[in-house]
Specification:
Strand content: 25-35%
Shape: globular
Number of strands: 7
Number of helices: 4
Oligomer: single chain
Bound molecules: zinc ion
Largest sheet: 5 strands, antiparallel
CATH topology: Peptide Deformylase
Distance between the termini: 27 Å
Structural class: alpha+beta
Radius of gyration: 17 Å
Length: 196
């Protein structure tokens, strides 16, 4: 089932999410819905708060990035297979130089800005079998994880912009909250006035 993606301005996007209990009811269905919702919106990642749930869960499929010709064959191969659900993740460590990448977000349609993040990270998480794993990522794979991880910490990429950039896009962000944006997937806007 495709779920509506909540837009910029919704309180759930600003809250730190909580761990999913082992006995959480309907987890399999939720995960399936998140995959379906992400693909329907042509996203490379989707976090639970983006479908209105303050839970520490996100899904990633970075395979569209594998087409990027600027990448080495090794990086392309890594991204091609990078499809994963991260349950109750914890970023243990970030390392390397900060680098800028033009990011977008399904909750903030039509806004793209350069965001600086560190090159590499180590993350621990539970897989769908309930096993706790620890893995390291770098480059674009790390980038997607950092963006989605921020969602479960209540942080959006627009929070990381300079005060000037924030001022410049303020009007656009307000319009998104009100639903005044063209988008070709299902969304829920926090400040949309009820239509008759
Ligand atoms: Zn996002």
């Amino acid at each position: 089932m495709i779920l509506p993606i909540v837009a910029y301005g919704a309180p759930v996007l600003k809250k730190k999410a909580v761990d999913i209990p082992a006995d959480y009811e309907g987890f399999d269905a939720l995960l399936e819905n998140m995959w379906e919702t992400m693909y329907a919106a042509s996203g490379v990642g989707l976090a639970a708060p983006q479908v209105g749930l303050g839970l520490r869960l996100f899904v990633v499929d970075a395979s569209p990035f594998a087409e990027d010709e600027d990448l080495t064959p090794e990086e392309q191969a890594q991204l091609k297979d990078f499809k994963k659900a991260f349950i109750n993740p914890v970023i243990e460590e970030e390392s390397g130089e900060e680098w800028a990448f033009n990011e977008g977000c399904l909750s903030i349609p039509d806004v793209r800005e350069d965001v600086k993040r560190k090159e590499a990270l180590t993350i621990s998480y539970q897989n769908e079998a309930g096993e706790r794993l620890t893995e390291s990522y770098s480059g674009l794979a790390a980038r997607v994880i950092q963006h989605e991880y921020d969602h479960i910490e209540g942080i959006l990429f627009t929070d990381k912009l300079s005060p000037l950039k924030k001022r410049l896009i303020k009007g656009k962000l307000n319009n998104i909250s009100k639903g005044k944006v063209r988008v070709d997937y299902k969304m829920k806007f926090p400040l949309q006035s009820k239509k008759r």
